[in-house]
């Protein structure tokens, strides 16, 4: 049997990283996690560490800003996956240098896990959210490090629990706001499914130096379609309030940062169509991850909305 790559996860106590570490173990990869000294101080983090240890994850003490610990960790593995938060994207620079020096890392998956920063059409609006991720892409390419980028679009836990209603926590039962004409399609993927796709891609030659886009069947809908699915589930028509592009842009301008980021992401996905306007096959370095791994069972938007019914 082919030997499974040894995987290092950086950020395993975080939201996405925890699922990545679990998926790595589920797919039988020897799995290591770089854990900071400060991590153990929180009880939720302690619970996560316990769960990861039970799953077989081996902990290595260290931090992205501690060169010696990074070198030691990178030396023990074949694949490095980074899942630090978007604010820390540029903190990956030292890690990239160390991977370059190491020279035998078979794959690096940087902390991207969202929309494609090279494709989003909201320049100058996002406070460099995507510019930081693009800078890391350019660095990885320039250093010639073997990579895979996971462009998974929105996690289901983001915006979908409210049916894309800013400021709400649950889906509407009477009135719903629809941005633009409501016909532009967006993508939501469950975080544990993102983790399964990511781990499936790391030993796959088809994903070497590629951007893996996720648009699984049952997970790509417009706002009008999302509302229609929800209306069917609750057996009731909702009153619709349409907010035009101009009105949304005005609201973004009037709302202080970072509160306006949610509106900016809505503008990007559901007005500009940044998750779906381009053809994956036509992009020179893109592959459709949803088609590469048909055996992976994933949660559809309809199944997710069922969990919100009560
Ligand atoms: N597509 C979407 O809808 C969506 C939504 C959310 C996130 N994301 C993306 O997913 C990725 C991960 O984000 P997240 O929200 O899961 O992050 P998170 O929950 O904030 O977790 C960050 C992790 O990084 C670790 N970390 C922080 N600084 C570190 C350092 N110096 N050295 C080593 N580890 C360090 C933290 O460890 P401690 O426990 O020690 O703090 C934690 O485990 C990001 O690229 C983000 O943009 C996408």
TrEMBL record:
GO terms for molecular function: oxidoreductase activity. GO terms for biological process: lignan biosynthetic process. Residues 3-305 form the NmrA-like domain. Keywords: NADP, Oxidoreductase. SUPFAM superfamilies: NAD(P)-binding Rossmann-fold domains. The keyword Oxidoreductase applies. It comes from Cucurbita maxima. InterPro entries: NAD(P)-bd_dom_sf, NmrA-like, NmrA-type/Isoflavone_red_sf, PCBER-like. This is Probable pinoresinol-lariciresinol reductase 3. Signal peptide: none annotated.
């Amino acid at each position: 049997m082919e030997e499974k790559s040894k995987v290092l996860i950086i950020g395993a106590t975080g939201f996405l990283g925890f699922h990545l570490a679990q998926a790595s173990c589920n797919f039988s990869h020897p799995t290591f996690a770089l854990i900071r000294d400060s991590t153990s101080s929180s009880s939720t983090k302690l619970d996560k560490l316990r769960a990861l240890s039970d799953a077989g994850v081996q902990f290595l003490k260290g931090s992205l800003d501690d060169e010696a610990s990074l070198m030691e960790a990178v030396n023990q593995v074949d694949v490095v996956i980074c899942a630090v938060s978007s604010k820390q994207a540029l903190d990956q620079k030292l890690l990239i240098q160390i991977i370059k020096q190491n020279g035998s890392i078979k794959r690096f998956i940087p902390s991207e896990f969202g929309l494609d920063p090279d494709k989003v059409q909201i320049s100058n609006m996002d406070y460099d959210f995507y510019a930081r991720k693009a800078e890391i892409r350019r660095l990885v390419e320039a250093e010639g490090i073997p990579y895979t980028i996971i462009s998974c679009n929105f996690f289901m836990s983001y915006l979908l629990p409210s049916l894309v209603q800013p400021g709400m926590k649950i889906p509407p039962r009477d009135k719903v706001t629809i941005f633009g004409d409501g016909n532009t399609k967006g993508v939501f993927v469950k975080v544990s499914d993102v983790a399964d796709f990511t781990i499936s891609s790391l030993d796959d030659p088809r994903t070497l130096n590629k951007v893996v886009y996720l648009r699984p069947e049952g997970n790509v809908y417009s706002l009008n379609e999302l509302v229609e699915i929800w209306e069917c589930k609750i057996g009731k028509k909702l009153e619709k309030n349409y907010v035009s592009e101009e009105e949304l842009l005005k609201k973004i301008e009037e709302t202080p940062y970072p509160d306006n980021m949610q509106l900016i992401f809505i503008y990007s996905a559901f007005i500009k169509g940044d998750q779906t306007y381009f053809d994956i096959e036509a992009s020179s370095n893109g592959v459709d991850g949803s088609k590469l791994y048909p055996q992976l069972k994933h949660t559809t938007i309809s199944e997710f909305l069922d969990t919100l019914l009560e």
